[in-house]
Write a structure and sequence with these properties.
By secondary structure, the chain is an alpha/beta fold. The chain is built from 5 helices and 11 strands, in the order E-H-E-E-E-E-E-H-H-E-H-E-E-E-E-H. The model has no long low-confidence stretch (mean pLDDT 98).
Length: 180
Amino acid sequence: MYKGIIVLADGFETVEALATHDILLRSKKIESELVGLNKLEIVSSNNTIVKVKKTLNQINEEDYDFICLPGGKIGVDNLSKSEELKDLLFKFYKHDKLISAICAAPSILGNYGFLDNKHYTCFPGFQKGKGIYENVGSVVDDKIITGHSMYYSIEFAERIVYFFLKEEGIKTIYPGTRGI
């Protein structure tokens, strides 16, 4: 069983966070936890309220295999201001664990140098760092997965499933997501 966190801050993009969470859980071999940046009740960019059981200060990197950052401009602005998140991201990076980000959130990875010389995608205008931008739905480069926008949330989540479970994981989620 693999285990990861999706970090939510006020202003997060609802579909990017919740669709990713849902797809990961459907794999039956990936445990996904929604975690609040600094509180247990987070308000999305479209005013959807999500209640979580943990905040970032309750997370020990050693207990998780991956971290995921959803977009939403205001949410990403809030994530970017967190020294606690920065420290956690550097621990994941140092320990060669999967880091994933979608929409505006890859800009955080770019600001920290994680995208240097790596292929990535993000919402246009949020390119940061010295990476190689690709205008596609999602990109996997080593232990970094990036997604372009809300529209590509399911593709992005499928990339995370494939990263850990390969084709077996994809076959597990398809009946419930694609009706096949």
